[in-house]
Amino acid sequence: MPLIKSKSKEAFGKNIAAELRAGKPQKQAVAIAYATKRAAKKDGGGLYANIHAKRERIAAGSGERMRKVGSEGAPTKQAFIDAAKTAKKSGGGVSLSVGRGEKLPTDQGAGLTAKGRAKANRATGSNLQAPAPNPKTEKEAGRKKSFCARMSGVVKHAKGDAPRAKASLARWNCKEGGAAKKHDIKGW
Question: Domain boundaries in the chain?
Answer without folding.
Answer: 9-85, 96-130, 131-181
